[in-house]
Amino acid sequence: MIKFIAANKWFNNHQVLNNISLEIAKGEVIVICGPSGAGKSTLLRTINKLEPIDDGEIIVDGMYLSDPKTDLTSLRAEIGMVFQHFNLYPHKTAIRNITLAPRKVRGLSKRKSTERATKLLEKVGLSHRRDAFPVQLSGGEQQRVAIARSLAMEPKIMLFDEPTSALDPELINEVLEVMIALAKEGMTMVVVTHEIGFAQKVADRVVFMDDGEIMEVGSPPDIFVNPQHPRTKDFMSSVFHIPVFDESHEEE
Ligand code: ADP
Ligand code: MG
């Protein structure tokens, strides 16, 4: 569904993506983790060509992103994106936030788009909040509306960039639960997150990035419990406070 072939990207002289090769199958859930500045957001943004790469190739659902003939509107129509900050339209109610793009971009009727949005609000557990304005919603509720708004465009791929990192701790699970349900329905998902519980529940593979490079790819236990690369080990022990078994002491 998504294929990176030796993708490189520089910002001025700084290489932010270094020889990225990764293939993501339809229905796969990929979690990307790594330190701040590793290039995780940039990598996500290359998938819908919000950031172009300088060399290599990215193929999304058969579309070659380096090909100038690839239509960005069709590409982006297949990809939903959810950010750390929800950016809902502040003067529109929850349901109108969700119906807006399908009406404006897809030309859906008010009735059709409202039907679809009503189902999506139910799916994210917010039927009772349909007429609330963003300011009246908690951060967790706003993020669930943002997810429903993305889903209203019927994307084939969903990208999430640290979707829970701006939330108070007690609001994180309600958002993760919506994402877990989506993963279980077979959505192709690429999720930048440090929520290890989410990764363990639904990630098919975890990608550890550092310094623009993919250092290590594996199952959640491979990466979180038994990382091989020294930088993955360092990162896991500092961020997750998981004691990592160090074989260098084995013979002592
Ligand atoms: P992450 O999401 O892993 O924290 P980013 O993808 O945001 O990392 O950034 C990777 C590197 O690229 C960082 O060093 C960052 O400062 C740099 N960077 C990101 N966006 C830009 C930009 N628009 N212009 C210049 N440098 C950028
Ligand atoms: Mg980022």
Textual characterization of the structure:
This protein has nine helices and ten strands. It has helices at 40-47, 72-77, 94-104, 110-123, 139-151, 169-184, 196-202, 220-225, 230-239; strands at residues 2-11, 14-24, 29-33, 55-60, 63-64, 79-82, 157-161, 188-192, 205-210, 213-218. The protein has a six-stranded mixed beta sheet, sandwiched between helices. Strands 2-1-4-5 form a four-stranded antiparallel beta sheet, covered by helices on one side. The radius of gyration is 19 Å and the shape is globular. The mean pLDDT is 94.
SSE diagram, text form:
Layout lengths: L1 E10 L2 E11 L4 E5 L6 H8 L7 E6 L2 E2 L7 H6 L1 E4 L11 H11 L5 H14 L15 H13 L5 E5 L7 H16 L3 E5 L3 H7 L2 E6 L2 E6 L1 H6 L4 H10 L13
Parallel strand pairs: 3-8, 3-9, 6-7, 7-8
Antiparallel strand pairs: 1-2, 1-4, 4-5, 9-10
Bound molecules: adenosine-5'-diphosphate and magnesium ion (MG).
